[in-house]
Design a protein that fits this description.
Structural class: mainly alpha
Radius of gyration: 18 Å
Number of strands: 0
Order of helices and strands: HHHHHHHHH
Largest sheet: none
Shape: globular
Distance between the termini: 18 Å
Strand content: under 5%
Helix content: 40-55%
């Protein structure tokens, strides 16, 4: 979705013509409960001409696909004794408690984010599932604080964070 009705909010090359009130009304058209059901929200800035022409180096699709497939294999093995789960996205609230255990530092970080951004219980679970996936991609058994931080950053449309950032 666009960040505002004119589409230029946050763009470094075009000035947004929307007032803060217009942007707030535009964003309020998407309910919090709907946003809670979306695991990852990210802002995608405009690409430079070099990026569009592919002059910037980056990972190939093949490399990314290999990492994703490795993470999927980890998840298939983790849930092999469950008929109802084959990936982290399918975890229910009770499953999140079982499969997304946190150390004290990670737990404090997540609780701080919940308080600061006013996140819901559903957003809390989504962050944990995304952090679990990030740890799988990194081939880590444990969910580390940096994975929690990254997962929190993927919640940029949560209302309080979006409107006050």
């Amino acid at each position: 979705m666009n960040p505002c009705p004119c589409g230029w909010f946050g763009d470094p090359f075009h000035e947004c013509t929307c007032t803060p009130g217009i942007i707030e009304r535009y964003m309020s058209r998407i309910s919090g409960p709907l946003l809670d059901r979306i695991d990852i929200h990210i802002e995608v800035p405009r690409l430079s001409s070099d990026e569009l022409e592919g002059k910037q180096g980056g990972e190939t699709s093949k490399t990314i696909r290999e990492r994703v497939n490795k993470a999927r294999t980890i998840q298939l093995n983790r849930y092999k004794h469950r008929d109802d789960i084959y990936c982290n996205a399918h975890l229910g609230p009770k499953d999140v408690k079982e499969f997304c255990a946190l150390d004290s530092e990670s737990s404090k970080l997540l609780h701080l984010a919940v308080e600061k951004f006013g996140l819901s219980a559903r957003a809390y679970d989504r962050i944990l599932k995304v952090a679990r996936t990030i740890s799988d991609i990194d081939n880590s058994e444990n969910i580390k604080p940096e994975y929690i931080s990254e997962a929190i950053q993927y919640r940029s449309l949560d209302r309080k964070f979006w409107l006050h950032s």
